[in-house]
């Protein structure tokens, strides 16, 4: 059978393809790619307007009605490829280009399927505070605004202004508008109209187009498609923030957090848990209300902290959600006292130095990327983060101070781009990674105002000021009156501290609180409403029995604490689950008797009327004459001699760090 010639018009030129009448459309397309190796994905149609596509792929040339000399057209638009029937299977194509080293290459690679469209707005689950603010009008009247023209009281000057109006922000002493005010501005005529969208900087995904055989990652010795090369970025100071203020619900929360530094002089960090509320002080603002601080495993020193792996991280987050809380941010100490006056603190942070160090900025960006904020106005369904950073440090008056920050969306994009943003030994500067054969790094710029008031552009080659990435947040502030119902007690030892470790004995001592009696439901609820005790029970399900019993018991416990319902607390204490927990704590000698010194292993004797109602016997809550058996047991599990450890603990009055030093040096 004689072959026929079909002319195909493409964006890279015209090709003449020789095919048999029995050949399929798929064969025709494959021969076309052999003729034009640089041709990207396409669909074939009869007319240049692409109103009549050829198909299906297994149809023969004769069935399609193509004759010798016919001219067809290739459509390369993204819509044409995306609208193809069925899922787009990866197809092999030729790529001709130059490597970063200047070598010309021709490679056969597997072209990736077209990227999925934006996340539908209906599939984005907003945070509760975002849903509330989205329904708010947000407009406010300016104070002391005199009417200069108009009719009666309804004049132009007395009308309410938008939440992003500079006059309103200045009147309220707000330096940065809220995120929801920023959204309103984008959707306004001033911001570009209701179709304006939030865009994140696309740095591309290294190796997305594929390498040799579609296997090699990185840019390396392969062709680079211009469409995949990341675009340059110009850093601007962000004019909005996702969280406008941080509030600590009780000053005692921070005071307890500082206790470890007071006892050891070592730095420390923790994660703040609480909830988000509408901030009435900022138009359409959000306030992060901190109700507890969880301290994960960490290696502490006088000049820094090492973040150790936390095997209980997911359990902590899940249990916090049962309490109606979520992770709001992280807090760390950076304190140094004067040599001659321990009541004064060195001021190392400020406008003349830095607000966040470069390593802290990169870490904050990483944590914010791990905790993104859902957003319907962004293609990805997320934009920015409500995760905040709080620093405890000295201020200009050499007093103890607390400062809150976030990093910008551009900082998050840089950190997410696989190591483009690096921290340096220059505390006030971050470093932009240099390009290599295996990594393409786009140009990064930042703008500044010169001494003459002109806007100048600088290249971040290789350093950029950290301040361009940092966004200031108000606070932390404290409520004028502490709400007792919203505060968790903190008499149970705080997790991962060496000075007073969490043990079964300490749990027994905590439950033997004098207020914890059946005829005092409020006292019982207060005893149970201890954040650190609840987390200890969540991380040690063996106290409850089985995993299913632990999940059921925690759900009931957290439900009673969350709703502050003394009736639910009493119901839990009378349940078999709680009885089994008390029996485990009271009878298991491996958990120790606690620092209070009670040695009875009987549930009735240990817990008295709170446990099973068998008697009023209760261990003394006074100091037990230096009983450090729990700490000695802990040291023995670390490989030290228990008897020797107990002797040293008696000498250092229970100071675990001193005991560890003495045992290690002996």
Q: Tally the helices.
A: 20
Given as residue ranges, the uncertain stretches (5+ residues, pLDDT < 50) are 84-116, 205-222, 589-625
From the helix content, strand content and strand pairing, which structural class follows? alpha+beta
Q: Strand tally, please?
A: 27
Q: Residue share in helices?
A: 25-40%
Major β-sheet profile: 7 strands, mixed, barrel
Portion in beta strands: 15-25%
The overall average pLDDT, rounded, is 79
Span from first to last CA?
A: 96 Å
Rg, Å, rounded: 33 Å
Strand arrangement in the largest pleated sheet: 12-14-13-17-20-21-27
Concise overview:
With 666 residues, the chain is α+β, with helices and mostly antiparallel strands. Helices cover 28% and strands 21% of the residues. Helix 9 packs across helix 10 (409-416), helix 18 packs across helix 19 (642-651) and helix 19 crosses helix 20.
Structural summary, described in words:
- With 666 residues, this protein is an alpha+beta fold.
- The chain has 20 helices and 27 strands.
- It has a seven-stranded mixed barrel, surrounded by six helices. The chain has a four-stranded mixed β-sheet with strand order 2-1-4-3, with helices on one face.
- Strand 13 and strand 14 (285-294) form a beta hairpin.
């Amino acid at each position: 059978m004689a072959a026929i010639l079909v002319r195909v018009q493409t964006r890279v030129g015209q090709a003449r393809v020789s095919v048999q009448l029995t050949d399929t459309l798929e064969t025709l397309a494959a021969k076309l790619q052999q003729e034009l190796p640089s041709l990207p994905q396409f669909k074939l149609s009869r007319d240049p307007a692409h109103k009549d596509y050829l198909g299906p792929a297994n149809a023969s040339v004769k069935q399609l009605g193509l004759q010798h000399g016919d001219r067809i057209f290739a459509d390369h638009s993204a819509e044409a490829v995306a609208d193809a029937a069925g899922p787009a299977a990866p197809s092999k194509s030729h790529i001709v280009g130059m490597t970063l080293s200047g070598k010309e290459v021709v490679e056969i690679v597997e072209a990736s399927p077209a990227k999925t469209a934006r996340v539908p707005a209906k599939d984005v689950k907003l945070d509760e505070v975002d849903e509330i603010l989205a329904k708010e009008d947000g407009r406010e009247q300016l104070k002391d605004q005199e009417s200069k023209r108009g009719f009666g009281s309804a004049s132009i000057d007395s009308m309410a202004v938008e939440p992003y109006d500079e006059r309103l922000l200045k009147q309220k002493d707000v330096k940065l508008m809220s995120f929801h005010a920023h959204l309103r501005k984008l959707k306004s005529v001033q911001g570009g109209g209701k179709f304006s969208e939030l865009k994140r900087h696309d740095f591309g995904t290294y190796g997305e187009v594929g390498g040799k055989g579609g296997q090699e990652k990185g840019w390396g010795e392969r062709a680079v498609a211009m469409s995949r090369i990341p675009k340059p970025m110009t850093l601007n100071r962000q004019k909005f923030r996702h969280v406008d203020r941080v509030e600590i619900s009780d000053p005692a929360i921070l005071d307890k957090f500082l206790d470890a530094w007071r006892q050891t002089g070592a730095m420390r960090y923790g994660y703040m848990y609480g909830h988000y509320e509408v901030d009435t002080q900022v138009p359409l603002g959000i306030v992060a209300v901190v109700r507890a601080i969880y301290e994960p495993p960490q290696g502490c020193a006088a000049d820094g902290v090492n973040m150790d792996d936390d095997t209980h991280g997911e359990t902590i987050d899940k249990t916090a959600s049962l309490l109606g809380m979520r992770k709001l941010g992280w807090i760390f100490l950076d304190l140094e006292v004067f040599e001659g006056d321990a009541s004064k603190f060195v001021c190392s942070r400020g406008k003349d130095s830095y607000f966040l160090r470069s390593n802290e900025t990169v870490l904050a960006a990483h944590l914010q990327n791990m905790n993104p904020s859902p957003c319907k106005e962004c293609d990805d369904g997320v934009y920015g983060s409500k995760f905040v950073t709080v620093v405890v440090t000295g201020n200009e008056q050499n007093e103890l101070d607390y400062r809150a920050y976030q990093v910008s969306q551009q900082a998050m994009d840089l950190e997410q781009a696989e190591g483009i943003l690096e921290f340096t030994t220059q505390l006030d500067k971050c470093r932009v990674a240099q390009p290599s054969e295996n990594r393409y790094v786009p140009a990064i710029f930042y703008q500044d105002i010169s001494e003459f008031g002109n806007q100048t552009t600088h290249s971040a080659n290789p350093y950029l000021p950290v301040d361009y990435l940092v966004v200031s947040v108000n606070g932390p502030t404290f409520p004028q009156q502490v709400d007792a119902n919203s505060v968790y007690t903190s008499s149970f030892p705080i997790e991962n501290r060496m000075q007073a470790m969490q043990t079964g004995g300490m749990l027994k001592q905590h439950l033997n609180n004098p207020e914890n009696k059946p005829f005092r439901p409020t006292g019982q609820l207060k005893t149970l409403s201890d954040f650190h005790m609840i987390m200890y029970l969540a991380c040690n399900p063996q106290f409850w029995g089985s995993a299913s019993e632990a999940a059921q018991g925690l759900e009931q416990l957290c439900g009673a604490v969350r709703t502050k319902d003394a009736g639910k607390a009493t119901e839990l204490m009378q349940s078999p689950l709680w009885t089994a927990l008390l029996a485990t704590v009271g009878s298991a000698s491996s958990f120790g008797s606690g620092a209070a010194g009670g040695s009875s292993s009987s549930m009735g004797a240990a817990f008295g009327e709170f446990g099973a109602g068998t008697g009023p016997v209760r261990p003394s809550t006074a100091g037990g004459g230096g009983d450090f058996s729990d700490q000695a047991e802990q040291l023995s599990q670390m490989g030290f001699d228990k008897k020797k450890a107990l002797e040293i603990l008696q000498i250092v009055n229970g100071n675990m760090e001193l005991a560890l030093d003495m045992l290690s040096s002996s």
